[in-house]
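Session log. Operator J.P. requested a structure for one protein chain; no other inputs attached. Running the standard single-chain path with token output.
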Amino acid sequence: MFDFLRELFSTGSPACCQPGDELDTAIEHLIGSTDPRLKLVPRYWDRLAPAVSRALQAAHQCTESLFQSHELTRSAYALDPLVHALYASSDQLQERLAANPDLHGFLATPAGRGSNRIYGLLTATRVEKPRLGIALQDGLLRRDVEQTVLQFSDTRLLAFGADEQASHMALMWSVFDYYAHRALHRLSELRERRETLEARYHLYLGKLRSLEHYHRGIGGLLGEAAGGQGSSREETAQELALIEHQLHDAVADIGSLDDHLERVIEVLDEAPRLIHIDIIDRRIDRTGVVLSGLQSGGDAIEFAEAVFHGEVRRAAIRVSIPVAEIPPAPRPRL
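Structure written below.
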């Protein structure tokens, strides 16, 4: 499952471009990511441009809906309750920074080498699970109290930039990458559906011919009722007719490059619904226990959570990291 999330939040997005070039860059990237043959379709650019423009706008809006950045440092771990919830300890935070090859790869670029601070996006899976714990209730310390613990797993850092705007653009292109990924997935689904229907069509066609041959031969001597072959032949013919109808529709969906282009446009038109941002707010204590409105103390945290295609959810938190506090990458073992 995480493969497509890495594609979504990859650092291999299109190079940043001037605003006037953004549409051209997006169309070229979309075609390269789905089907390069789409360039053979007459007026492909004019037909793609409106949908790609709307998808770019949706990608910008998705990125702009994220909150201000949180600093990832040892001191922030002690002071920022959200950072404290993201990592088990300040040592773990440092270890994750040291072991992040993409972060160190960015530091090796001209933009990274000239920066005092790196901006990016931290993604993680939010997990809220019940447990029995110890809590103070009505002035008494009680055991086996039902609690909910908030934890984060699979934290990742990506979409790096030397400033917030550069990180924003890297993330915007990554969101657009996801739209392209969904378009490619749709084309693949349609191809697989057509191939499956073609295989079933030939299977049932062979079965029907076999039944008809039986009916004209030994089945005619025995009578259809003897082996129930008449009923089976009729059911097979009905199933074959249904498969033939479905196959006609499947071929029509991607029967030509023009059809491929239309399917890509249809996916891009769904862009605002492919990713949406939920706002999650909780009040937690220092151990991650979620506190209810009746309980005192704790720290309020609030963060954005991206929902992909109505299924996968990932916390999406802007972060900044002082370069001086990024530990060196571990040396490879000989």
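Operator note: Residues 2-128+151-183+268-280+305-325 form one domain.
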